[in-house]
Write a structure and sequence with these properties.
The complex is a heterodimer. Chain A is built from nine helices and no strands. Chain A is mostly helical. The termini of chain A are far apart. Helices cover 41% and strands 20% of the residues of chain B. In chain B, a hairpin with a 2-residue loop joins strand 2 and strand 3. Classes of the chains: A mainly alpha, B alpha+beta.
């Protein structure tokens, strides 16, 4: 038993969450594994400074930073579109008038296209939704992982859900 | 269909996500009873959750990744990765994950004495060899590298030109060790990269150290109030020569 076993006991229970986030952020199985490996090495280095509270948020924060570094490196090879910042003037309705996006979402489920829709969301909206709906994290923890204020987390979640519904609506047969 | 914005959307979403306390929930409930917009939004929130939790793929860690991490972190005596010994720089740079693996194995076998710093340095050295990690500022000119650190560190690291002695400067990098920022200078000697880590000496002089970690040699010396640590796959006597040249250089 050494310092590494202590680290393993803290970090490894969150390996699935780490990989899930890395995979959803990078969109690549290969890159996700590299990101997780890199993040674990980094986390091990930072471990002496770990205060012991909320290991999952701590690990995911490091994974998230490693994933963004990988995305940045990739962007230098190929330009990727970045999402514009928060919309002004309050929250627009989730559902669009005129179509029936909820039905469309259900049909989307049948077509198994949901992963594709989620993949197409801007990365900061995608990560908010993955952390909230797949990891069931609190706003506070999402704010910690993403390094953003809670208000930003809330508006990103709203926009993410709205974009997902709208994208599902566009996928509807006429 | 298009109701006016009732102004409660963020609150409604927070309620949906279980973020409201009882008093806030009660206050919102009174509004929701009469608000068509809230009713629609709630249904839409529920639809996205149902779709995501039922059909979005949860990418659990592959078994092989878990096993390899468990072996690296848990095993008492992991095998030493002799493959990493003396690999040429280019080859090592494309070694990627393997290099990271070597680094954590180094941590696993280190002795207690001063192992923390040495292991962290070797770890950092190995990580720096991965593609794109060696330098933040790429320059062979110390007059470019030295000012680059201004404002990034609370000390001015000595940057010396050792090209004439056979150690051309490749660039500089900002690193974090033990929770504080340190300067890392990348030099090259033949095919071999040398990382020179620099930070201000703490109270009480540190004894010189020369150690080997898993194929990487670490040499420590102090000069002008700075603590310097050279890490490389060069032999220890070659590293000592680097130190002599560094000390002699202006």
């Amino acid at each position: 038993m050494g310092p590494n076993s202590a680290f393993a006991a803290v970090a490894l229970p969150h390996l699935d969450a780490a990989h899930n986030l890395a995979r959803w952020l990078t969109g690549s199985a290969e890159e996700a594994e590299d990101v997780v490996q890199e993040a674990m090495v980094r986390a091990l280095t930072y471990f002496p400074g770990f205060r012991g509270d909320n290991a999952r948020a701590w690990i995911l924060q490091i994974v998230r930073n490693a994933a963004y570094a990988a995305l940045k490196a990739r962007a230098q090879r190929k330009a990727v579109p970045l999402a514009e910042d928060a919309e002004d003037g309050g929250a627009p309705p989730l559902a669009d008038p005129g179509d029936d996006p909820e039905r469309a979402l259900i049909r989307t489920r049948e077509r198994k296209r949901l992963d594709t829709l989620l993949d197409r969301l801007p990365v900061e909206l995608r990560e908010a939704l993955v952390l909230r709906e797949l990891e069931e994290m609190s706003y506070r923890d999402i704010a910690r992982v993403t390094g953003t204020p809670i208000g930003t987390v809330m508006s990103r979640l709203w926009r993410a859900r709205r974009m997902l519904l709208r994208a599902a609506g566009k996928g509807m047969a006429p | 269909m298009s109701d006016p914005d009732c102004g409660q959307a963020m609150l409604l979403q927070a309620e949906f996500d279980g973020e409201l306390d009882a008093a806030q929930s009660v206050a919102l409930a009174a509004h929701r009873e009469t608000c068509a917009r809230c009713r629609e939004d709630w249904a839409a929130l529920a639809a996205t959750r149902a779709a995501l939790t039922a059909d979005a793929t949860y990418h659990a860690a592959p078994a092989a990744l878990r096993r390899s991490l468990e072996a690296r972190l848990g095993a008492a005596s992991p095998p030493t990765p002799r493959r990493a010994w003396r690999l040429p720089w280019r080859e090592l740079a494309s070694f990627g994950v393997g290099a990271a693996l070597a680094a954590s194995l180094v941590l696993a076998v280190r002795p207690a004495n001063d192992g923390g710093v040495v292991a962290a340095l070797v770890d950092d050295h190995v990580r720096s060899l991965q593609p794109g990690h060696l330098t933040d500022v790429i320059s062979t000119d110390r007059h470019t590298v030295k000012p680059w650190f201004d404002g990034k560190l609370d000390f001015a690291p000595p940057v010396k030109d050792l090209a004439a002695q056979g150690y051309p400067l490749v660039g500089g990098r900002l690193d974090y060790l033990g929770g504080r920022p340190v300067a890392a200078l990348a030099y090259q000697h033949g095919k071999h990269p040398i990382n020179l880590f620099i930070w201000p000496e703490r109270a009480g002089a540190e004894a010189p150290v020369d150690t080997a970690r898993n194929g990487y040699n670490v040499l420590h010396w102090s000069a002008d109030g700075m603590s310097l640590w050279a890490v490389s796959d060069l032999e220890q006597d070659e590293l000592a020569e680097f130190e002599r040249d560094w000390r002699a250089a202006p």
